[in-house]
Structure formats: structure tokens, C-alpha cells
Design a protein that fits this description.
Helix content is 70%, strand content 0%. The chain is mainly α. The longest helix has 27 residues, at 53-79. The protein is elongated.
């Protein structure tokens, strides 16, 4: 059985490098030969794993939206009706992990979502809406005086805050992962308090 500590598969390596390159130079600024070279295979060798760049982009953007939703649902199930504060903190921590560990995907989403086929773009939006609603419910449990629309706006604002990590500079320029995560967490909670 595979675990998170196992070496990434070739497919995962390709996706990681594609995300990095697409984020750095844009979807149209990267060829399959460059992606292949980044993982040590020929460009045409990529076609054993993906139908093309469009398929890579779709898997990256649909995949991260699905992983965020699945992670949120898992955190909700693990809370099992427990302390709403703990659930909200857990959701924030999970999103911070994404925002710090998958920074190229945030850039890619911002720049390239419109390049997806309509069906893939609709799926990304559907997964994102479900993820937002999971958060809205959690936020309203902690802040019962917050009605639905302002809660939803606050969730989107916190996502904007957390997803700003690509603009924080290179990883070496941050104050360290733990300190950055702590700062982002305090700011997210502060934003919900202010709402």
C-alpha cells in the first residue's frame, strides 16, 4: 500500500514539474519537451502518461480542487461533531498546508483556469463551491451571529489571504514554514473574528 512517504510516481513527478513550469512561464510558454526534460524523459514519452498538456492542466486543477474538498470532508468527519473551534482550526491548517506546499498550483489556477475545457472548468467550480460551503458551515458554528452571506464572503476573503502565498517571495525569503503557517493562521482567525 502506498503512503505519502513513498517516492512520487512518474505521473506525480510529471504533474509537479508541469505545475512549476506552467506557473513560472505560463501554459503556452512551456513545451512537452521541457516538461519531459525536467523529469528525465523525452517529450514524446509524456504521452504514455497524458494525452497532452491540456490533460495535465486539467488533472492539476481538478485534482487540487478535489483534494481540498476531500481533505475538508475528512477533517469534518474526524471532528465528529466535536468542538467547532477545533474543526475551524483544522480546516485553516489544512488550507495553509496547501497554500505553502502547492504555491505553483495557486498561480496556475489564477492564470490558467480559463484554458480548461468547459466541463473541466465547471467541475473545478463545483468542487470549489462544495469546499466553500463546508467552511461556511464551520465558520457559522463558531460565530453563530454571522449570517450566511457575510460568512461566505469572509470565507472567500480568508481564501484570498491564504492563497496569497505565491506573492510572498521565494520560499527562502519567508520567515520559515512554521512561523509563516502560524502567522497565516492568526490572520485567518482574525479575519473571521472581524466579520
Amino acid at each position: 500500500m502506498a503512503t505519502r512517504t513513498d517516492a512520487p510516481t512518474r505521473r506525480e513527478q510529471i504533474l509537479k514539474e508541469a505545475a512549476r513550469l506552467f506557473a513560472e512561464r505560463g501554459f503556452h510558454g512551456v513545451g512537452v519537451d521541457e516538461i519531459g526534460a525536467a523529469v528525465g524523459i523525452s517529450g514524446p514519452g509524456l504521452y504514455r502518461h497524458f494525452a497532452g498538456k491540456d490533460a495535465m492542466l486539467a488533472e492539476l486543477l481538478v485534482g487540487i480542487s478535489g483534494r481540498l474538498l476531500t481533505g475538508g470532508k475528512r477533517r469534518l468527519a474526524e471532528s465528529d461533531g466535536g468542538d467547532p473551534e477545533v474543526l475551524l482550526d483544522s480546516l485553516i491548517e489544512g488550507h495553509i498546508d496547501f497554500a505553502l506546499d502547492d504555491r505553483p498550483l495557486i498561480t496556475l489556477h489564477d492564470r490558467e483556469l480559463d484554458r480548461l475545457r468547459d466541463s473541466d472548468r465547471k467541475l473545478v467550480r463545483q468542487l470549489q463551491r462544495q469546499y466553500v460551503e463546508l467552511w461556511v458551515e464551520a465558520v457559522r458554528e463558531v460565530y453563530p451571529g454571522l449570517v450566511e452571506q457575510p460568512a461566505r464572503a469572509a470565507v472567500h476573503a480568508v481564501f484570498g489571504l491564504l492563497n496569497s502565498t505565491p506573492h510572498l517571495g521565494r520560499s527562502g525569503g519567508l520567515p520559515g514554514r512554521e512561523a509563516t503557517a502560524g502567522l497565516l493562521h492568526r490572520m485567518a482567525r482574525g479575519a473571521f473574528e472581524a466579520a
